[in-house]
Amino acid sequence: MKAKKISLGAIILACVWIGVLSLLKGFTPIIWAGKIFGLSITEILTTGAAFVIVCTPIYRSIWLDKKLGIKNDAAADGETETRDTSGAPAAPAGGV
After folding, report:
1. Over the chain (96 residues), what is each successive 10-residue block's mean pLDDT?
2. What angle in degrees, to the nearest 10, is found between the helix axes of 2-31 and 41-63?
3. CA 16, 8, 11: angle at the middle one, nearest 5?
4. Is pTM, for the whole model, over 0.90?
5. CA-CA distance, 71 to 80, in Å (whole number)?
């Protein structure tokens, strides 16, 4: 589950990034006597969202696979998985 840890780390990094830069933006005029912080709140949120957007598909595919049983690779190739629920034994390989 290395991909899951990387994705979770990216989400946590984005939260910390947005939180710290937002606080810095809010307190910069108070601490440095009227100076302006160089990033707008839109830029801060956009860069934080970029961290999540880059890594979330990895986490999302794991979540869909493990929790819901949806295979993204099979759906992308047009393949579908079917299960035999009739209880009949499987046909022998090689087909006779």
Report:
1. 77 91 86 79 89 73 71 53 58 58
2. 170
3. 35
4. no
5. 9
